[in-house]
Amino acid sequence: MIKVATFNINGVKARLPRLLEWLQETRPSVACLQEIKSQDEGFPIQDIEAIGYKAIWHGQKGFNGVAILADGVEPVEVRRGLEGEPEDEHSRYIEADVFGLRIACIYLPNGNPLPGPKFDYKLRWMERLRKRMREISAEEVPAIVTGDFNVIPEDKDVWSPSAMAADALMQPESRDAYARLLGDGWTDALDLHNPRGGVWTFWDYQAGAWQRDHGFRIDHALLSPEVADRLVAAGVDKEYRGREKSSDHTPVWVQIRD
């Protein structure tokens, strides 16, 4: 069984004890991280290697940043960054081959405030992602595109649709762009196993959101047809959001047959 997880860590150095704890307690085969918020040279690779993981990462000072960790093996990098906007310097995409899978780790732009350039950038980025996902599909490799998509796909994926109605995460354009990814043949693993919704992956630090369970689902794992056929389970490690100095996200994982 191969377990692939994603975790927006919200600062890899600030949350390093929580990250190492989660890796050791749940032992995913592959762990994709977002918002590492670290320049490449500052990434804590020695601590990660000390517990048996190898990693590749794409960092940026103070913002963004993505990484792919693998238990005992080196991920083989395929691509970093998405084509289409040469001036885009955000570290939001990294792709690798590991354990016979193509893994893409993404941190999709938030898009707030809207309307405005940040929302326009989000939609352009989603089109660029779709182009890359279509290229991966054409290769017919078993693939998982996972990470923080910053999209609440449907009303069932948020504690209160009205409370988030004006947010970039829930705009029709954001949802339509996400739906187009699924329409191209990708499977939303967490949604497949929780068709009625009510599963959250993010709770804001503000307004007692965690204590009141005011969350929503924005961390997703999209599976190519070659992987969707092998899906055994999908879930959320919810308890890690409640630990001291936790990320505001919680890990999401899928288990697939070898």
From TrEMBL:
Keywords: Hydrolase, Magnesium, Metal-binding. Pfam families: Exo_endo_phos. Its cofactor is Mg(2+). Residues 5-249 form the Endonuclease/exonuclease/phosphatase domain. It comes from the Bacteria. GO terms for molecular function: double-stranded DNA 3'-5' DNA exonuclease activity. Its EC number is 3.1.11.2. The keyword Transmembrane does not apply. The keyword Nucleotidyltransferase does not apply. It is an enzyme of class 3 (hydrolase). Belongs to the DNA repair enzymes AP/ExoA family. This is Exodeoxyribonuclease III.
